[in-house]
Write a structure and sequence with these properties.
Blueprint: E1 3-8, E2 14-19, E3 38-43, H1 52-58, E4 63-69, H2 72-80, E5 89-93, H3 108-116, H4 120-129, H5 134-142, H6 149-165, E6 175-179, H7 187-194, E7 199-203, H8 216-221
Parallel strand pairs: 2-3, 2-4, 4-5, 5-6, 6-7
Antiparallel strand pairs: 1-3
Length: 225
Amino acid sequence: MMEYKWLHKSDSKKLILFFNGWSCDEQPFKTVGSDGSDVLMVYDYHDLTLPKQVIESIHLYETVSVIAWSFGVWVAQLALYPLKNMLSRTIAVNGTVKPVDKYSGIPAPIAMGTLSGLNDRNLEKFQRRMFSEQEQWECFNQNKPLRPFAEVKNELFLLLQHFRGQRMKDDFYDTALISRSDLIFPSANQYHYWEGKADIIELNHGHFCFYGFDNWEELIHLIDI
């Protein structure tokens, strides 16, 4: 079963459901505020079962927006597709639903090489490549995920297995946010995938773009501009 954690919780009638990326937890997102919405994060995809508490939460809010990042883009469409009609916005951030693909995701040799060569040092190199700006990297470095390395490596192994065995839904997302300087999910591949499938908005960031926003609502309001 996936893990989940409330990043912001009040008496709001608006829910932002955030599907995190591989290897992450709540730590890097402590500096991202909320402008009135409750924010529920889902992470750790060794098992693709969505907790019943998350499903129940979706039914309690007047509006539910989904923001999914990186490999979480694939996971969210698989987990939430049956509930698609209950979602007001579905936003993919620097990812696709063909996450390991030569033309629409991360090329398979790179994905498999990341897994086979993964150690503490290479994980940090991967994390550093998520950022195009030194200041944002330093913020992440001060708020790094606290998940055990063995758990993170196992998650990646199982995700790569999941990708092979599950059919995708390519009509789940309304909007795709693509960072021009993404060194993890090649931006050209993201454009190739999303063209004609979702509204595309460009960001001037790296793969991890969240420190470019003061709060979660700012990502959603990009759609309204």
